[in-house]
Specification:
The complex is a heterotrimer of chains A (about 325), B (about 130) and C (about 550). Chain A is an alpha/beta fold and about 325 residues long. Helices cover about 50% and strands about 10% of the residues of chain A. Chain A has 3 domains: about 45 residues, no CATH class; about 210 residues, Rossmann fold, CATH 3.40.50; about 55 residues. A 7-stranded parallel sheet of chain A has the order 4-2-5-1-6-7-8, with helices on both faces. Chain B has a single domain, classed as Rossmann fold, CATH 3.40.50. Helices cover about 40% and strands about 25% of the residues of chain B. Chain B has a 5-stranded parallel sheet with strand order 2-1-3-4-5, with helices on both faces. The radius of gyration of chain B is 13 Å and the shape is globular. Chain C folds into 2 domains: about 425 residues, Methylmalonyl-CoA mutase (TIM Barrel, Alpha-Beta Barrel); about 60 residues, no CATH class. Chains A and B meet through helix 2, strand 3, helix 5 and strand 4 of A and helix 1, strand 2 and helix 2 of B. Strand 3 of chain A pairs parallel with strand 2 of chain B.
Chain lengths: ~325, ~130, ~550
């Protein structure tokens, strides 16, 4: 019997039991949103145990997919069962997407690890709306950690940080461009920095640049009050060098979160982030309905917006 | 969000054949038609394709073939799908001589697209295969 | 001495074919028209040699390869009987990728796209009864090229032909694999080491051998424009030159052994402009940038193949016309050797008859049309000169981009372009644009989007590869493995692994030793995979 013929309740039960096809189908229904997705949220919420959620972001070409692939290979040796959400942007014009991240990750045969490609489906801001729900589903199905891999352009890295416990920012040697570093939020969101392609020239210079910037934020008071300073890890994803150090840094961060009591803080932030995105989507639908056929009627835009707002939010 | 559920399709090449010009064009065509293309590309095995189809909950699988391998590779994929009890339509694109088309169709291939098939035909073939 | 007198001197000193250089009506024609520049003079825009085809026609080199070594050997002999003057070998996919016929990857592929070569035994049968000292052989293989060349050398030795007398080319152009054909095994940098080793080895031991055929054909087939084909190919050439120079090789010595391989596509004048621009650009860069002083190192000698991707499955006989026109453009562009596609190749490997028609097409161009009587006959025509300049201009823009990517080094720029998907992305964009144009009817392809009456006509007889080929080849391989000395095989592979780990060692000698023990191609490739790793490309669509 195909998983597509199952009731939502039976499907989620199968998924939680570990049936890969059921998990795949569940994720699809979450991505579609709507009532069924909400129902799945209700069903998975109690079963979620609190898996470590790790965001992996950075500029295109930094080697994130290869790094993530290496992690999927490495983590089972530590007794872990990772799942990956590989997020790529949907075309704003057509709504379609080409999802090509899993190829490089998949180079290692998929035993234990679960890779799911996700399109943003027009969610401006860069992270698919379905991500928190999918993370919860993976959690409920026994995957830990859950990795969210995405390209850091625009606002995305901020979004990823909102959905993750630990955020890894991947850069390459020669990146030490001040403009890049000062890009809104990049320094703030990183819990771990990875310099990939560390075998290249300039790796040490980049490391120095990063350390300097971190020193500055310490001085300016931007870092978090617990005094945590993101470590900088050197990796060469193509041959796996540095992967264990990278993972150790991630688990150290988690330990820090737990020890400092900031894990609950982070979880609360994730909760708020998810509620906020759900609200934003609902509101967007109402806003679209309200403004779709709007014509100028002599009043100022401020006045019109004010009136609609009172009506919508009443 | 669109009213029709988004179609998710796995595109791949089985075996060693490295001609990927056609499959890349098809990927763009399908993206432009609003589909989500899980692009596996070259050098896939029936096992890797099936694993991807499961994890991605794919609605269809598209394989591109040249090098006269279709008579061996298409049935191999169908057999693997059968063995895995995975009922997903298989679409073959690429160089398939006319006389082999009925053979592939009889074996269970949902649609066969020739080289340079126009975009409309490609999109229709996938849509029809997914919801006949 | 004026340019013209210099040209005249060279021309007079060149031996010419003993045929009347007259029109069909008996009007004698001059070998060259115009006041300059002249062929055979830097930068060779009008041709590499003063007398052009008056001294020697292009080599009519027909690609062949399918089934077992014996099948291909028979086809080779037929080609030689029919007047073909060079042998060109196509290998099957497993062989091209460094896998043996008994590998799980070989299923359905053995002997289909070319001949299966697993061990030296197959190579011996492939060239049985052919005097390697008197033919020129081209082998189209890249990733495992070193092993295949080693086998060829070993066959020559067995038959009493010294390495130094072996003439031919091995494609061995790995850079374009990452960009277009995808027949790579190891990552780019270790692959480059193998190639520079082969260049060094052949420079000293095999002076008649071209160790790299820097190829644009596949780049074009993958969907690039003519200018991209030109630019990416020459850029790859610059990369090889820089790599070889970086390890102390002399640009004049290895430079004169490099050759190129271009596509002859359908836009007649664009192709001719492209070929002329290629010669001019290569000469300038080799002389001015890389310091070549030997003229032969500045010469862009090239083989051409008519565009496979232009062949239609619809109304396949139309392809005969396409190929004829493309072959003509290659002749007018001054190619050194030419392969013409068979009309049925859009559907399957060519039948004997179709392959013969393809060869006859070249012969008609060479002997009936008169184009071979005059060197660069279109030179000086305003359109041709403009086109040549335009191709050069577009290529230089690409070189500038790569140079920037590589911080002044074309080699590093090419590596970077491979890594960041520049080449693959440009090619995919061009391919997509073309497809859209055809789809929209803005670009007419006869029989495909217009003039489609006749598409339902009778079936062409297609070549069917016998399904028993695979079984046969597996049995042959098994027999070889059984008969050989496995201790010697293992020892040779260990030695190869050690050599691979030592960048100062040339890999050719240990590879030659290994093939002589009848180690298989896959075993040899795996030994190097162990040291160099494998390459997985990003999905750039």
């Amino acid at each position: 019997m195909s998983v597509r013929d199952l009731s939502t309740v039976d499907l989620v039960e199968r998924a939680i039991g570990g049936d890969r096809r059921a998990i795949g189908r569940t994720l699809t229904l979450i991505e579609r949103g709507g009532e069924i997705a909400d129902q799945i949220t209700e069903l998975t919420h109690p079963a979620a145990k609190g898996s470590h959620v790790v965001g992996i972001t950075g500029a295109p070409g930094a080697g994130k997919s290869t790094l993530t692939g290496q992690l999927i290979r490495h983590l089972p040796t530590l007794g872990l069962q990772p799942a990956v959400l590989a997020v790529d942007p949907s075309s704003p014009l057509t709504g379609g997407a080409i999802l090509g991240d899993r190829v490089r990750m998949d180079d290692v045969a998929g035993d234990g690890g679960f890779i799911r490609s996700v399109a943003t489906r027009g969610h401006a801001g860069g992270l698919a709306l379905s991500v928190p729900g999918s993370v919860r589903a993976f959690d409920a199905c026994g995957f830990d950690p859950v990795l969210i891999e995405t390209v850091g352009v625009g606002q995305v890295e901020v979004d990823v940080a909102g959905a993750a416990d630990t955020t890894v920012v991947v850069v390459n040697p020669g990146w030490g461009d001040a403009v890049q570093a000062n890009k809104a939020g990049l320094l703030e969101v990183a819990d771990v920095f990875v310099i990939n392609k560390a075998d290249r020239d300039g790796a040490n210079d980049t490391r120095r640049d990063l350390e300097l910037m971190l020193d500055l934020s310490h001085v300016s008071g931007h870092e978090d009050e617990s005094g945590y300073r993101p470590p900088i890890i050197m990796t060469t994803a193509t041959d796996g060098a540095g992967i264990d150090a990278m993972w150790a840094a991630v688990t150290d961060h988690r330990t820090h979160l737990q020890a400092s009591g900031r894990l609950e803080h982070r979880r609360a932030a994730r909760f708020r982030y998810e509620v906020r995105s759900r609200l934003a989507t609902r509101l967007e639908t109402s806003i679209n309905a309200a403004t779709h056929d709007l014509e100028p009627d002599g009043r100022s835009p401020a006045a019109v917006a004010g009136e609609l707002a009172s009506r919508l939010l009443a | 969000m669109t009213s029709e559920p988004v179609i998710r399709i796995v595109l791949a090449k089985l075996g060693l054949d490295g001609h990927d010009r056609g499959i890349k064009v098809v990927a763009r065509i399908l993206r432009d038609a609003g589909m989500e293309v899980i692009y596996l590309g070259l050098r896939q095995t029936t096992a890797s394709i099936i694993a991807a189809a499961e994890e991605e909950d794919a609605d269809a699988i598209g394989l591109s073939m040249h090098n006269a391998g279709h008579l061996a590779l298409a049935p191999a994929m169908l057999a693997a799908l059968d063995k895995a009890d995975l009922d997903i339509p298989l679409i073959i694109g690429g160089i398939v001589p006319d006389q082999d088309i009925p053979i592939l169709e009889a074996a269970g291939v949902a649609a066969i697209l020739g080289p340079g098939a126009p975009a409309e035909e490609v999109v229709a073939a996938v849509r029809n295969a997914v919801s006949p | 001495m004026s340019e013209q007198s210099r040209w005249q001197e060279q021309y007079d000193a060149t031996r010419r074919r003993d045929v009347p250089f007259e029109t069909m009506s008996g009007v004698p024609v001059d070998p060259i028209h115009g006041d300059g520049p002249f062929p055979g003079q830097y930068p060779y825009t009008r041709g590499l040699h003063a007398a052009g085809y008056r001294s020697r026609l292009w080599t009519m080199r027909m690609f062949a390869g399918f089934g077992t070594a014996e099948d291909t050997n028979a086809r080779f002999k037929e080609i030689l009987r029919n007047g073909g003057t060079g042998l060109s070998t196509a290998f099957d996919m497993p062989t091209l990728m460094g896998y043996d016929s008994d590998s799980p990857w070989a299923l359905g592929e053995v002997g289909r796209a070319g001949v299966a070569v697993d061990t030296l035994r197959d190579m011996e049968d492939l060239y049985a009864d052919i005097d390697l000292g008197s033919v020129s052989t081209s082998m189209t293989i890249n990733g495992p090229a070193a092993a295949v060349l080693a086998m060829y050398i070993a066959v020559g030795e067995k038959n009493g032909v010294a390495k130094a007398d072996l003439a031919g080319t091995i494609q061995n152009d790995i850079l374009k694999e990452y960009q277009a054909q995808k027949e790579y095994i190891y990552p780019p940098r270790p692959s480059m080491r193998i190639i520079t080793d082969m260049i060094r080895y052949t420079s000293t031991e095999m002076p008649k051998w071209h160790p790299v055929s820097i190829s644009g054909y596949h780049i074009r087939e993958a969907g690039s424009t003519a200018a991209q084909e030109l630019a990416f190919t020459l850029a790859n050439g610059f990369a090889y030159v820089e790599a070889a120079r970086a390890e102390g090789q002399d640009v004049d010595q290895f430079g004169r052994r490099l050759s190129f391989f271009f596509n002859a596509h359908s836009d007649f004048f664009e192709e001719i402009g492209k070929f002329r621009a290629a010669r001019r650009i290569w000469a300038r860069w080799m002389k001015e940038r890389y310091g070549a002083t030997d003229e032969r190192a500045m010469m862009c000698r090239f083989h051409t193949q008519t565009a496979g991707v232009s062949l239609t499955a619809q109304q396949p006989e139309n392809n005969i016309a396409r190929v004829a026109i493309q072959a003509l453009s290659a002749a007018l562009g001054g190619t050194q050797s030419l392969h013409t596609d068979a009309f049925d190749e859009a559907l399957a490997l060519p039948t004997e008859k179709a392959a013969r028609i393809a060869l006859r097409t070249q012969q008609i161009v060479a002997h009936e049309t008169g184009v071979a009587n005059v060197v660069d006959p279109l030179g000086g025509a305003p359109y041709i000169e403009w086109m040549t300049d335009e191709m050069e201009r577009q290529a230089e823009a690409v070189f500038a981009h790569l140079e920037e990517l590589g911080d002044g080094s074309m080699l590093e720029g090419v590596y970077a372009g491979i890594e960041n998907g520049y080449f693959v992305g440009e090619i995919a964009d061009a391919a997509y644009r073309f497809e859209r144009e055809v789809n929209a009817g803005r670009r007419v392809i006869v029989g495909v989007n217009e003039f489609v009456e006749g598409n339902e006509d009778d079936e062409t007889n297609l070549l069917r590869i016998d399904a028993t080929t695979e079984e046969l080849q597996r049995k042959r391989l098994e027999a070889v493995k059984h008969e050989r000395d496995s201790v010697a095989v293992e020892a040779s592979l260990d030695a190869l692994r050690n050599a691979a780990q030592d960048p100062s060692m040339n890999l050719m000698p240990p590879i030659i030793d290994a093939v002589k023990t009848y180690a298989t191609e896959e075993e040899i490739s795996n030994a190097m995979r162990d040291v160099f790793g494998s390459y997985v490309e990003q999905a750039i669509v």
